[in-house]
User: Which sequence fits this backbone?
């Protein structure tokens, strides 16, 4: 099995905006073209298309094409742990920065500095009179602020602003700081930023994290009382299940931990990603989406039920779902977007829910 | 080869909004579930989801889910020529009618009667102060007004209204009138409707037709002087190439012609779909999109170059394109949407273009 077969989740890529035709092209590419080169070349093509569009006054299409380019650069690099990784990352950052002002609504870059480390945050504000609720979106192990465009759009369509950034071990912050146990500090820095913006409602800021970001979201919600809602989308509470990880995922943990061996990586992430000590502190509505076929074992749900205060819990267990339930199409994403709307925009008080749980009940 | 393998174009389905996960589910479905039942069941599921969403005040998601349901019903029926066909068609019509008011912007139904035949037209108006240009969208051999949602959105995003309907042999009109050589009459009835709406600019109404609709678009533009622009998206000028059609497509021609034999069908559609006699009458900017790998032979491009007045021509020949260039992803759609913007919104006078032609030049 080639690395791309191990890691490639077509459902995820398509839902995040990668073109089906480009994925078919990647799968069927000539042998002499590498995976990395295929996607990087495609990123160049999309960028050239976009430049032509800008020259013709077609900004909307240009933005769309630059997002496609950025996603190509993302998927070029994410399988590798050599110089290709940073090359693809840098290209993705560059392409997204070019796309940002052309998006509808545009993504505005705020250049924060946290503990002396530059931390760009992109904020998108929906149309209509504000102030608006906001959703802070957290990337995962090999995902970054540039990838949540489609999910952002669902949130924006429902009248909420979005904010994305890279934390320790991710994207632009990776060179300054490896994966660490204090991600919530950076989430809080974004809350600081948002509460300072007139267009944002200070009492209606949520956090939504996917995969590893779902771990960060839980810890951020537990440690940051200003957060009004939390979604852990395919997240986890701890890394007790390390042995179940695929070889490539273990290698990814090692890479973002900046250590030499898998054993060092195991120890580092095990300590950094422990949240069980803080989960009982959660005081905001908390949405847990878990797929039974996720490599994160079902025991995570037990942990959540044990530790997250029941009155705040909205638990959804999908019996057919894979990691992050990407294989279920748009429906889980609509569910999360509508839940955020209910909590942040409509201000509904939701009763605790357990959908699909117990799984045989 | 199963019928679905012959007809199924994954690129088309995904770009029109079918979920990738649903397509995988169709491909991998248990043997005892038929193609028809798979999609019709899924339509029911999406509808139930949508009803739940409406009850919760989540109209945006409900509209999205009902569009998914309508597309499922479309792809359930389009391979069959027995009672399944009308069953799926009727279901699609019903689901779309339910979706229409929930879409953003909504689709408003106008119940026209043309020559005593009921002809519903759905109009979607973009946000912002009008009056707006409009694009009339024509379905094809087995496609109807319910299927152009995604293309409509690209046009609406660029400040143009959309109008969709079924003509002879299509969707709701099929029971009253088989495929015929006077489709342009029905296009003109929609122009009548649009010119009577205050929100529409009478001098900026275009027609866009896909596949067989691309043939209808050409004839409509030739015969209706009020049309300000025309796009023939994977269309054709005539059916001289009948022998190249697949068995299933020939059967489809027979079905919509309401005749008993393929030879009768050949004769009927050959006469009905001839446009060469009127192409020289075209007086508006006309965009021809053709893929070299289309089953419609490249000689169509020669015909266009011979007969459509050169000063109105915007010819795009994609050397890697299949029928309607569905395999090229979103790019051809963005090109068409931006061209419509240039002609109708920006009022640009475009110079005649020949992109990708001559193919070896």
Assistant:
């Amino acid at each position: 099995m080639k690395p791309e077969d191990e890691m490639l989740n077509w459902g995820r890529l398509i839902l995040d905006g990668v073109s089906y035709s480009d994925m078919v092209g990647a799968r069927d590419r000539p042998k002499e073209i590498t995976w990395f080169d295929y996607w990087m070349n495609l990123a160049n093509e999309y960028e050239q298309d976009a430049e032509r569009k800008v020259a013709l006054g077609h900004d909307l299409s240009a933005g769309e094409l630059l997002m496609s380019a950025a996603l190509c650069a993302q998927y070029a690099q994410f399988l590798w742990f050599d110089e290709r990784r940073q090359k693809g990352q840098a290209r993705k950052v560059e392409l997204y920065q070019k796309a940002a002002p052309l998006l509808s609504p545009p993504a505005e870059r705020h250049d924060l500095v946290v503990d002396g480390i530059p931390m760009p945050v992109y904020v998108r504000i929906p149309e209509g009179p504000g102030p608006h609720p906001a959703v802070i979106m957290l990337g995962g192990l090999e995902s970054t602020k540039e990838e949540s465009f489609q999910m952002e759009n669902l949130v924006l369509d429902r009248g909420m602003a979005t904010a994305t950034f890279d934390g320790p071990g991710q994207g632009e912050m990776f060179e300054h700081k490896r994966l660490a146990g204090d991600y919530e500090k950076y989430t809080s820095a974004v809350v600081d930023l948002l509460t300072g913006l007139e267009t944002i409602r200070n009492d209606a800021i949520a956090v939504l994290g996917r995969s590893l970001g779902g771990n960060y979201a839980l810890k951020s919600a537990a440690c940051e009382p200003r957060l009004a809602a939390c979604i852990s989308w395919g997240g986890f509470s701890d890394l007790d299940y390390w042995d179940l990880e695929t070889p490539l995922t273990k290698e990814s943990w090692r890479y973002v931990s900046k250590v030499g061996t898998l054993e060092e990586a195991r120890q580092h992430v095990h300590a950094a990603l422990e949240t069980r000590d803080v989960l009982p502190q959660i005081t905001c509505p908390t949405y847990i989406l878990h797929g039974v076929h996720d490599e994160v074992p079902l025991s995570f749900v037990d942990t959540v039920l044990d530790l997250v205060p029941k009155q705040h819990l909205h638990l959804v267990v999908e019996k057919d779902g894979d990691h992050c339930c990407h294989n279920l199409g748009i429906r889980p994403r609509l569910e999360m977007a509508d839940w955020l709307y209910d909590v942040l925009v409509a201000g509904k008080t939701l009763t605790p829910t357990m959908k699909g749980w117990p799984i045989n009940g």
Notes: Chain B touches chain A through 33 residues (CB under 8 Å). The longest helix of chain B spans residues 35-55. Strands of chain B lie at 107-114, 117-124, 132-138, 161-165, 200-210, 229-233, 286-291, 313-318, 353-355.
